[in-house]
Amino acid sequence: MGKRVLVVGGVAGGASAAARIRRLDADASISIFERGEHVSFSNCSLPYYLSRTVENSDSLVMMTPESFKASYDIDVRVNHEVCGIDRARKTIQVKDSATGQEYEEAYDELVLSPGSSPIRPKAIEGVSLPHVFTVRNVNDIVKLDQYVNRENIQDVVVVGGGFIGLEVAENLKEAGKRVSVVEAANQVMAPFDYDMSQILQKELCDQGVELFVGDGVKSITEDKVLLSSGRELSAQAVVLAIGVVPETALAKAAGLELGETGAIKVTPDFRTSDPHIYAVGDAIEVYQRLTHKSAKLPLAGPALRQARTAADAIYGMRGANKGVIGSCAVRVFNLNAAATGLNEKTAKANQIPCDSVYTMAMDKVGLMPGSSPVHFKLVFELPTGRILGAQAVGKGNVDKRIDVIATLIAMNGTLEDLKELELCYSPVFGTARDVVNLAALVGLNVLHGVFRQVHVSEVRDLVENHACIIDVRTPGEFEAGHLIGAVNIPLGELRQRVSEIPKDRPVYLHCRTSQRSYNAIMALKGRGFENLFNISGSFLGISYYEYFTDKMTGRDKILTAYNFL
Q1: Is the pTM of this model over 0.70?
Q2: How confident is the model at residue 320 (pLDDT cuts 50, 70, 90)?
Q3: C-beta separation of 519 from 545 below 8 A
Q4: CB 261 within 8 A of CB 294
Q5: Half-sphere exposure (Cβ direction) of 188: Cα atoms closer than 13 Å
Q6: Comparing 4-115+245-314 with 132-242, is the CATH topology the same?
Q7: CATH assignment of 334-447, given 3.30.565.10, 3.30.70.100, 3.30.390.30, 3.20.20.60?
Q8: Under CATH, domain 452-553 is a member of which superfamily?
Q9: Of 328, 354, 468, 511, which one is the catalytic site residue?
Q10: Residue 511 appears among annotated catalytic residues
Q11: Which residues contact 29 (CB under 8 A, 6 or more apart)?
């Protein structure tokens, strides 16, 4: 007789663990218990049903109990909730939601994959009203879709500016709804640094989404959302996408150890404090390999790897667990965004000495149709040059650039490694020196003191304190928009006009691209100038950085006009 293996929860973690166990053991008796209606569905695709990008909700379901039985000889019981675990007797208590029947099942090995639950803060009045929704499964998204269409809803407020929040907002907007997004933090998309998130915030505004950051929700009524600032938003429907918490009630009741994050604590092979119980997915605590700290990471990719390792461990097979780095991607209307590793604020919060460079380059040769800029931020450790993370935003394939960085992080790669990385090149796919290679070169210049830099976040102070800023773009570019108080000395005229540039005070140079700024700095260094700084991110980056806050607060602008070309 083979092992009797029970799996609690389906989707990425549980379903994958069960399938792997079957591949390893043809004689195992395997059952999956899923309290919901669907055992395997594409939860990351749920928001796209709202716009009918996914035309049919049935398409969201990846496998049914019948297909699991036919393909893997796995017994799947949906609408069956596991209510308790008797570790001493090695049994679980199960309730059939359809009949109310309760029964026990014995196991040799048990795999927990209960997932996570959307947060419904009790501090917010009205979160239990019938027009307030969360998005966790297929039924949730169908109920939301049916409500907004049946009731002819026009005004929807999405609370939360993370992955689910922005994807729900985009798809509701595409479905013709008036959408507002409320985010309590000072930016959307926490994996991105503030400077990179501003690009996404401008895109949301450009697409007609009302965005409110740095403002929480105080209460929800039948037709309004009241914010902490006192602002009232019209809301016939509200979607809570504030975040998720790991489902640990079952594990906690069974006496399994929880970690410092509140999620289930597991060994490197995903065994819990009970040697016959494993746990994977959103409910567990993981090891962040860059901060060397415990963390939670509710992403499908890591869950799949965890499921395989746990299944292998059940059969005595050793697997490597190198921890997680947190690679992610999202589309926000016409922009794609991706990130991996640590952003700058997280690295600094963990006392990791670091710096960053913010560069822009075309995603393919400019002559090619569809060529567009990639905004790329690279974070690296000081003084080693070890790559800690990266973020990219653009209309093109930003994900492949971040995948390159994720691979280098896994190999403990440095700026030198990235500089020498040989990547595919064709004018229709990229440039001979890709933006990731360019970022490495700029990073090495900063690391080795070839030039000094200031970040886009520091430019407002420079302008307000009347710093000496030299804009080396062409006169036409300068006239289309420039920093107030900046002096235009085009790069081609720089060597002939050095007498106009002071040597007794800091000089800050910027252009449209970091390459041209670098050329300007090197030209001046060759003429004996030393107190030079490159403005990272260029005028394009400054325009994006300033735009949203200027628009929302009405503060004085530091530039004559924004230029996003």
Answers
A1: yes
A2: confident
A3: no
A4: yes
A5: 34
A6: yes
A7: 3.30.390.30
A8: Rhodanese-like domain (3.40.250.10)
A9: 511
A10: yes
A11: 1, 2, 3, 4, 5, 75
